[in-house]
Task: inverse folding
């Protein structure tokens, strides 16, 4: 038994994917525990409010960081010293729009907490992006473990003493993020360029990466945004719960993407093709694991939420298709980006974004409260199909030339 444990840690030490996957798994265990605890303890009305606030924060910091991650990892030499400048610009703008979206429906305290949370989480994510580029994968994952562990402890204490307001729980997330930021001294500091001259030209040079990343950050939250616009707070809470369940499935896809993007950037064409073949070889096992986890989440969900969200299981089943489709698409997206075909990627995401809204309005009267989830599945399926088609046509063109 001890020998098997030692072998595992030796593999973990030398395997980037295992470092990220195991660290991500541990951090997600704490995250899932936090979310399950909150789902169980908050009333439906409270959780509806919590879901909207949390979604605005997650959307805000992902909108600010996703474009930077793409350009920093794939074009490191050009943007090495501008990551903090770009990060502060993006996080400030996205925080402003996130607060503006909810203005009038939330209190001044909640507006302040949302703005500060987006800026804090964005800064932490910028440091994680630097660690990812330098392939410090243990540090990349460990910082999330610390954050989620502290957040779990704080939420448990706060709720136990009766402080269960959504804004208080979000404030606890901000506090939990601060110690994790201190973990990144090992990353080292690059010389930071604070000069704004040339920033517009930089944006124009990577406009398609920025636009595709922006749309890619917004699409995951469209089901909640649509449910908030057209349905009751109970439906909003139902989508909030279902999306928390979906996040469990997304952790594998996220770990895969983190390592895959960084590794592909350092590979030549033949090495990339070999990497794809290895992925396909393991796909049957990955599918079995995926459906096993999906079934487990489906079965335990009524226990977690006390059966208060009657439709959460069905919404989760629909949303569970998305991480699987996303993994397939992400492989080809990375190839297209590395081949400088960012315009094609943007067009695919733009069409998918349009399909999301078009399909929602077409099926709204038929699908009822399931319409936002069905529209999201249509959007992701469209994006993946178009990405695969673009990849094969671009490959064919290169071979002919």
Result:
């Amino acid at each position: 038994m001890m020998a098997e444990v030692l072998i595992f840690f030796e593999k973990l030490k030398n395997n980037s994917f295992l470092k990220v996957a195991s660290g991500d798994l541990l951090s997600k265990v704490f995250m899932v525990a936090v979310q399950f605890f909150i789902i169980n303890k908050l009333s439906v009305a409270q959780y509806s409010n919590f879901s909207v606030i949390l979604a605005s924060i997650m959307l805000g910091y992902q909108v600010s960081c996703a474009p930077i991650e793409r350009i920093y990892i794939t074009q490191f030499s050009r943007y090495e010293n501008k990551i903090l400048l770009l990060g502060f610009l993006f996080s400030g703008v996205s925080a402003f729009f996130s607060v503006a979206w909810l203005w009038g429906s939330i209190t001044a305290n909640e507006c302040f907490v949302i703005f500060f949370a987006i800026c804090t989480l964005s800064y932490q994510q910028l440091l994680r992006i630097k660690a990812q580029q330098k392939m410090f994968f243990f540090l990349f994952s460990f910082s999330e473990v610390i954050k989620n562990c502290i957040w779990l402890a704080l939420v448990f204490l706060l709720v136990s003493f009766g402080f269960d307001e959504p804004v208080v729980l979000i404030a606890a997330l901000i506090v939990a993020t601060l110690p994790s930021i201190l973990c990144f001294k090992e990353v080292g500091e690059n010389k930071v360029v604070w000069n704004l001259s040339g920033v517009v030209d930089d944006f124009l040079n990577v406009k398609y990466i920025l636009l595709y990343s922006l749309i890619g950050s917004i699409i995951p939250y469209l089901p909640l945004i649509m449910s908030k616009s057209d349905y009751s707070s109970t439906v909003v809470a139902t989508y909030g719960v279902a999306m928390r369940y979906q996040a469990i499935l997304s952790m594998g896809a996220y770990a895969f993407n983190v390592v895959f993007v960084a590794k592909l950037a350092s590979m030549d064409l033949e090495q990339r093709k070999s990497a794809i073949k290895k992925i396909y070889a393991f796909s049957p096992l990955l599918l079995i694991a995926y459906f096993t986890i999906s079934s487990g989440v489906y079965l335990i969900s009524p226990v977690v939420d006390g059966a208060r969200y009657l439709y959460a299981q069905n919404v989760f089943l629909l949303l569970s298709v998305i991480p699987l489709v996303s993994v397939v698409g992400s492989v080809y997206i990375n190839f297209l980006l590395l081949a400088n075909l960012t315009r094609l990627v943007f067009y695919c995401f733009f069409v998918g974004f349009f399909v999301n809204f078009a399909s929602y309005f077409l099926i709204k009267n038929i699908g009822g409260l399931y319409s936002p989830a069905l529209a999201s599945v249509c959007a992701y399926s469209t994006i993946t199909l178009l990405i695969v088609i673009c990849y094969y046509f671009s490959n064919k063109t290169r071979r002919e030339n």
Residues 19-205 form one domain.
